[in-house]
Amino acid sequence: MNATKDKPKRHRTPVVLFTLFFCLSGCSQDYSLAPPADSEKITVTVKLPQELKTETMWVMYRSATCKSISHGASGQRVEQDGRHSVYKEFQRQGQSDLYQVELPKDGGGACKWHLANVTFGVVHVDPAQFGENVTNGGGGGVVVIFDHNNSPRGGADIKVDGDLTIKKDYYPWIKEAFLGGYSKRISLTGEGGIYLKYRALNAQHVYFEPTLHSHFTIYSEQPKQKKEGNYTAFTYPDGTTVADGKWHPNFLRLQTIRTGRAADCFSLRRYANCPDRRPQLLPDWLPEPGKPGFGRYVIADEWGTELPSYSYRLVGADDQVFQDLSEPNGRTKLLPESAHPLRKAEFPKRVW
User: Fold this and answer.
1) What is the pLDDT of residues 249-307, one digit of tens each?
2) For a tag on the chain, would you pick the N or C end, based on fewer CB atoms within 10 A?
């Protein structure tokens, strides 16, 4: 008799435990954001040229409290941090060319959300100016990751400490496609792919300044038939056409066409090979220790790297002329303090 009474209890216990487990897994969780009033803010600012506009920003928050549960190929349970997406429009700051979004770093709520990453970018204001039925394509995108996870667009290509400032050149790219249906798009081509991806764990301010060189448009035409040896043809602003099997334009070639500078001059890794280092005199006057009344200047390139053995010609405040080669640390030879501040700094080719 007792065994009969106990039987229903043994069946009832798993049902109660299952119900409890299901609810703890989130069936009644409040997944909404509730940023505390004193949450640290992250500001994203875009400086827009006339021809471009901002796209809607995709903001992702993550939670280690509210897990996302899925199952693998073998039926195993897979837990991941929960994700919550919101979408923000950039707000113009007065009558300026600055557009801004302010985001709470602490998303709050029962799930204890934290800001994980943002995806934003710029597109052309008026695609129709490039022809009938022309639509906006890719390029001009930015992903900034604020935690140690990947973004929906993958991991970061560049890691930065502190605030993030992005200033990049872009060119209009009109591309015609024929395979799989005709389309014509105006994209932006620049350094990197469709998205520039950064990890900035400690950033409070993100600043993006795209410069569009609208008078240097590149055109591409996809082949009408798919067969070996048929490649997309790129016509550059100087009139040359290249069909080398690549899917995107050569950015450094565009930079060279526009500026006349060698491609090495636009890459930090290859900049040392650049024939034109764009020397500049750093403004600080450095008094020479142990030699009162004397000092030096530093000659550096556009990236701030000291230029050793670089020729200079300086005209002092008293019209005295000093010309020589910079030392291994980029410093000039000793100059009398009477030469400071300089009237003129020149960097002639070495002919003396």
Assistant:
1) 999 999 999 999 999 998 888 898 898 889 999 999 999 999 999 999 999 999 889 99
2) N
Burial of 295 (C-beta count, 10 Å sphere; 0-12/13-18/19+) = buried
* Token pair recorded at residue 325: 């080669």
Q: Across-strand partners of 76?
A: none
Domain extents in the chain: 41-70+77-214, 217-274, 280-346
Q: Is the peptide bond before 287 cis (omega within 30 degrees of 0)?
A: no
Phi/psi of residue 251, nearest 5 degrees = -65, -45
Q: What is the pLDDT of residues 58-108, one digit of tens each?
A: 999 999 999 888 877 887 887 889 999 999 999 999 999 999 999 999 999
**What is the distance between the alpha carbons of residues 212 and 173, in angstroms, rounded to a whole number?**
11
Q: Look up residue 107 and give its amino acid.
A: G
Nearest Cα residue to 160 out of 197, 131, 186: 197
Pairing of strands 113-124, 106-108: antiparallel
pTM, rounded to two decimals: 0.78
